[in-house]
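A quick aside before the break. I want you to see a complete sequence-to-structure record at least once, exactly as it would be stored in a machine-readable document. Don't worry about memorizing anything.
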Amino acid sequence: MKNRFLIALMGMALCACSDSEANAEPAQEVTNDNTELTELAQKVAAQPVNPKATAEARQLYTKLRQLYGQKALSGVVANVDWNIREAENVHEWTGKWPVINVFDFINIHASKDVNSQGWLDYSDMTHVRQWHQLGGIVGMMWHWQVKANNGTNLTCSPGAKPGETSFDPSKVYVEGTAENKQAIHDIDQVAGYLKTMQQAGIPVLWRPLHEAAGNTYEFEGGGAWFWWGAKGAEVYKKLWCWMYDRLVNHHQLNNLIWIWNSQMGDAAWYPGDDVVDIVGRDNYAALMYPLMKEFNQLSAEYPTKMVTLAECGNGDEVHMSLWSKIWAQGSRWSWFMTWYDYNYNAGNSEDHQFAGKAWWQDAFGSGVVVDREEWKAIK
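That is the input. The structure line, written in tokens, reads:
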């Protein structure tokens, strides 16, 4: 859990394209037919859970499955919301682009197209379209903010304090409640942007309602970090299925690959094989062994699902374990997504809070991490 950066990120709400690749060396074409599936991949469901998944979503899922266990895809998250700044850092350090760029709907309430006072325009799909057109994978997550108890600020954090929220997830799927009306408003707004992506033929790695169990199982007295996990496993699973139904059946969004986040030891929170495509894990430890242990555990608990390191970084440790060592030890995550450093200045420093120049140079030099050009060449 990237505590300090989430606090900074929440604080923003409480207060209120890439270069041409014409000169890039052509990537060697790679093929992966079904006869080359690893033992891990052979166990994974052959199709997305949505029987109406678009051709683009099916193609993306198939490519991920074909590569699963052979190599890991590279990924970064936007610096807060709607940009490719971290990807640009990686390109500056290595000359290569990561495959996945994940965007966040955290500031959707401030989008100019629905809010005259807004400072960000989520309807401007320039970065999303370009990333897809250049061969990358688009990911979406959502730090879903609601009104804090003080009635003014916005937050994800549950609790009774003025800056926290008592928003009740058990009432979201109860028709007519205030929570239900607010949730429908928010989800429908998000759905509009996702529909624009679907119409443009863009499949999306969709990771909503993440880290739901928080540190509930890490120590006595642990609890949910976000309001969607505040009422426990059963409420959370109903919320997940309600969202799935709203997006897939009501809005006919069929371009989504659904990713559920495990906090380890939280199998009771798993929404079900019929509404989850991929199981993710967020881990900011610097040690290799926990990663290998967690990968093995999740692979055993969810054998028909690909397992991914949905967020990673060095957390409070001095250095993050190099990806070459993580892979050599036995972790076979489908992809990794490094977190952003809000205070990082690419022009003045090579230091990065989560994964900097040396880490990325090792990753791409390891021979087991796929960059965007390599991904494009896989058929």
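Two observations worth writing down. The longest strand covers residues 256-262. The chain is about 35% helix and 15% strand. We'll return to this after the break.
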